[in-house]
Amino acid sequence: MNSIIRLAAVAAGVSLVAGASAAPAAVLVATWTGIVASGHDDTGVFGAIGNLAGDAYVVRFTYDTSIGYRDNSLPAYDLVFGGSDYGYAPPVSATVTINGQTVSINGGFESDAITKPTLPKVDFFSKYTHNDANIDIQTNIEMYDQADVHQATLETPVALTTLSGAQAGNFNWFVYDYNLGLKTGQAAATLNGGTLQISAVPEPAAWALMVTGLGLMGGRLRRRRFAAFG
Q1: In a 3-state reduction of DSSP, which class is residue 34?
Q2: CA terminus-to-terminus distance, the chain
Q3: Which of 70, 136, 139, 206 is disulfide-compatible with 21, CB 3.0–4.6 A?
Q4: Residues 6+ apart with CB under 8 A from 207
Q5: Cβ neighbours of residue 171 under 8 Å, at least 6 residues apart?
Q6: Pairing verdict, β 50-51 and 77-82
Q7: Strand, coil or helix: what is 202?
Q8: SS3 for 39?
Q9: DSSP readout, 74-92?
Q10: What does the mean pLDDT of the chain come to?
């Protein structure tokens, strides 16, 4: 009985940590999934040259509301933005996955996340540009929903939601190598609505406590099993 109580106590500790991670957090991930409405990959950015229409996509925005410039003007809107174009640290980065191939857009030039709960509307944008004597890079991704997602603040998680809107965003990728005199990367797509989920990212300390708690539970269960067969 005592061992059961101890296991329950450890489990409760893990639950408390998990519950703490669900509290308002600065870092969140907004994940869109859906189908490419139209688009073309000219250089094999996503593995093969050709039409992208009909392919499945996953777009993930990771955003940190503690950096960049925050304009919390609720209930009208909650906004964070940054990047070199604004003179603030970039709060948003993104990845785009099509055909199992993933590209990253770090939002270093311009990025933002905004929610307008009374409309409702959510919008995420990440853009990276670089141009010098050797290379020209122009990449951006924007995803939005204006019908289905009610996010009270940017720190509010959103359960997996099926989107009713036909169009959810646009993606552009362009890389030109001046030394080679040719495009080494070019792809563009219009993305249909599918699903959206916004989840908090647990703090490192919370992850450590959860792993420790699960390890203790596993160790106690193994000892009980070995004792039973001993």
Answers
A1: strand
A2: 19
A3: 206
A4: none
A5: 39, 59, 96, 140, 141, 187, 188, 189, 191
A6: unpaired
A7: coil
A8: strand
A9: TTTEEEEEEBTTTTB---E
A10: 84
Below-50 pLDDT ranges, the chain: 1-23, 205-214, 216-217, 221, 225-226, 229
Count of residues making up the chain: 230
Q: Tokens for 155?
A: 């720190």
Q: Hey, how many other C-beta atoms are within 10 angstroms of the C-beta on 15?
A: 12
Q: What are the Cα distances from residue 184, in Å, to 128, 139, 178, 208?
A: 16, 13, 10, 42
| Cβ count within 10 A of residue 210 | 19
- Residue 205: its H or E element: helix 204-229
Q: 88, exposed or middle or buried, with CB in 10 Å at 0-12, 13-18, 19+? A: middle
The beta strands (E) that lie in 156-202 are given as 158-162, 167-177, 182-192, 195-200
Instruction: Give the burial string for 211-223 (b: 16+ CB within 10 Å, else e).
Output: eebeebbeeeeee
CB 218 within 8 Å of CB 210: no
pLDDT in tens, 75-107: 999 999 999 999 999 999 999 999 999 999 999
Contact 54, 145 (CB under 8 A): no
172-183 confidence digits (pLDDT tens)? 999 999 999 999
pTM of the model: 0.78
Q: In the chain, what are the domain boundaries?
A: 1-23+203-230, 26-201
